[in-house]
Amino acid sequence: MGSRLRQLRRERDLSQASLAETLGLSPSYVNQIEHDVRPLTVPVLMRITEAFGVDATFFSRDDDSRLLAELQDVVLDKELCPSPVELQELSELVYNHPSIARTIVDMHRRYCNVRDKLSLATDTRHRSSSEALAMPHEEVRDFFYARQNYFDDIDKAAEKLARDLNLQRANNRSTEEALVTRLHSHGVSIHLAQSTDIASPEITPAGSTNIAPPPQAAPAAAPAMSSIRRSHSNLGADTTQHRFDAETRRLYLAEELSTGQRCFRMATELAHLEHDLVDKAIADAGFSGEAAAALATRGVASYFAAALLMPYTSFHSEAERQGYDIDYLRQVFGMGYETTCHRLSTLQRPGLRGIPFTFVRVDRAGNVSKRQSATGFHFSNSGGTCPLWNVYETFSDPGTIKRQVAQMPDGRTYFWVARTVRHRSAHYTQPDKLFSIGLGCDIRHAHRTVYSQGLDLSNLGAATPIGVGCRVCSRSHCAQRAFPQIHAELHIDAHRSSVAPYD
């Protein structure tokens, strides 16, 4: 427990004497705890959780699971570690020296980026070496991953703005009016635009009582504000949903967006106009290139938008009260299924934590296009994901929620809820998008969700055995294995066959 307490003290910029005074202990007692000479007793642990607003699991070995899994990936790389390393040794390194373990993982990740992209950099025909080596999406993914998908100052600023604007839950029309008015205070006008080149008449400016209807029947989600104008400008691409022109201070929104979707796009632009917190978070991250910084900026602005439209305290309260019922929450806050799930994965405010969820979005081909984790669940960087995972089962029954108790090779068990979402296009010639959205948590939190009803969570023997990916999965007898293990020698008997292809 000592290293964890020392980490907490340094994060709060406290001396041992200051920490001792806060906890009502002697400085020598704190010193002995930090050096693992004395145990961290339950009464002292309760004082720490109350004083610093951290979950008691902050001091649990379970919180090291993600770092331990990442360190296992490092030692499985035979180019760097030809001799096997016992799991117990890795566990002790992670537990006693987490900073060193994290440094090793970071060094290995940088090494892999260079190694894996070197051939591309030297063989490229149309790009420079620096462009070939740059992997903005991976850099941004690590940026959110390292922060457990939670930004405290941004979250609290968004919640304060929601109070200032008096945003009403389950009333998207009222929310839209409040957002439009706020944007007007920044000199920004809102314009509906078609995503094609077809022009349409402009709605009369704000304040007019003679508002011309659109050329076709107004959709159910037509804007409630006369100050939203219909524009001759198109958005520049068939799939563009919003665009902000900084010179003219015009925000263009695709006219086929629902009220909730319009609110979300307006909220993302407010993130830049209200605070410099987004820019500060990006500047502090020290991204290697403009592409990564821009991608992260968009991601953090979207985080602000979700925090504004689903304020933390209110959202957390409803989630806890309703057993994290996604469909209930999306109706109460007027957001889509995917956006609501993503918000659930961010509930990590000190002193008011929700269930630490892992959020994932995959397509039929197994590509993981979004992944954020507040848990110890580890995504492998070697190969794809596991076909036994229930996120892939959802494609055979679109729109239906699938539940799964899944066990990893190291014995850790998780509870997963997955469902497909379809992003419908505005035109027949544009293809729809179909994804599977998964939310997972450690099995010890499953009983807090409405989705665990009717399941025997104590029968872990019935859990589905899954892995982080075939290349690093240790399950040698898996019939679904697509690739042999990268850390084991491949022995093939030409005169023997089995269900498992690489048994």
From TrEMBL:
GO terms for cellular component: cytosol. It holds the Pfam family Peptidase_M78. It comes from the Bacteria. Residues 204-226 are annotated as: Disordered. Keywords: DNA-binding, Repressor, Transcription, Transcription regulation. GO terms for molecular function: DNA binding; DNA-binding transcription factor activity. Residues 5-59 form the HTH cro/C1-type domain. Transmembrane segments: none annotated. Belongs to the short-chain fatty acyl-CoA assimilation regulator (ScfR) family. This is HTH cro/C1-type domain-containing protein. It comes from Corynebacterium spheniscorum. The lineage of its organism: Bacteria, Bacillati, Actinomycetota, Actinomycetes, Mycobacteriales.
